[in-house]
Amino acid sequence: KSKSLGRGTYVIFDQSxxxxxxxxxxxxxxxxxxxxxxxxxxxxxxxxxxxxxKVEMIEALxxxxxxNGILSPDKFIPIAEEVGLINTLGELVLNxxxxxxxxxxxxxxxxxxxxxxxxxKQLRQPHFTNNLESMLHKYDLQPKDxxxxxxxxxxxxxxxxxxxxxxxxxxxxxRIAIDDFGTGYSSLxxxxxxxxxxxxxxxxxxxxxxxxxxxRAIIYTIISLACSLDLEIIAEGVEEKSQRxxxxxxxxxxxxxxxxxxxxxLESIKLILGHTSPK
Length: 279
Ligand code: C2E
Ligand code: MG
Ligand code: MG
Ligand code: MG
Hints:
single chain, 19% strand, Diguanylate cyclase/phosphodiesterase with PAS/PAC sensor(S)
């Protein structure tokens, strides 16, 4: 596989590339079949107020309920992006998440926002905002019932197109979050121009809490930045009480992670929301 091995290895290199290509083809076929057979489901993870533990939002996370078990998005989203299926999958998630949000609101009476991940490709579709609007209408939801998450990395490709899309979405009254914040290269001045409402601190920083001084400093800086730009803040990947404590002491309002709950299926999130709904 290594190019430095010299001439003789080109054959091996070609073979492995061919194998990789046929694996992608097969995965693409399987993805198409899975879409036809409705094998995609949405799990939900609560996002809570760090101080009170009240569920304020839930994040919709896509799962492939395949014949070989439940697969995580990291296993198929990159391929879906590559073979042009991400818009179909994205639409499917949006539809299910909106339908289920309406169901959860009706059955639990709880107040919460559903946070939905979107890829940059989706945002660049000319009719994305219109589709979003008709989806809300279809399930009788208000714009404030949902928010969209876009990764910091996705923000920096085709800046103008993305910025315009975000502005349109914001005009609808839908909140926008930057996901995996701290791992990309967005600049302060760029951030300030975007119509965003909140920042999600990437879990790689949270993982090193509470003891790693450097990561503590990074998180503190992100929280101060969010504060001065008047943005809300969520820390992702909180697994330990000590992490929750230090985040709370640094002024982080919301937390999400296995300490609170793993992502769970629809009926389980319904129970979780039911417990925290006003009596
Ligand atoms: P993300 O949006 O940053 O989502 C958070 C990920 O961290 C989820 O992985 C979640 O299960 C995981 N996680 C939550 N709490 C903890 C924790 O305490 N510890 C650890 N180690 N992990 C935790 P998941 O569900 O596998 O999703 C991976 C990524 O796939 C997501 O990262 C998101 O970028 C993408 N994704 C998920 N659903 C969709 C979707 O519908 N559309 C698009 N475009 N991307 C999606
Ligand atoms: Mg996310
Ligand atoms: Mg994230
Ligand atoms: Mg991520």
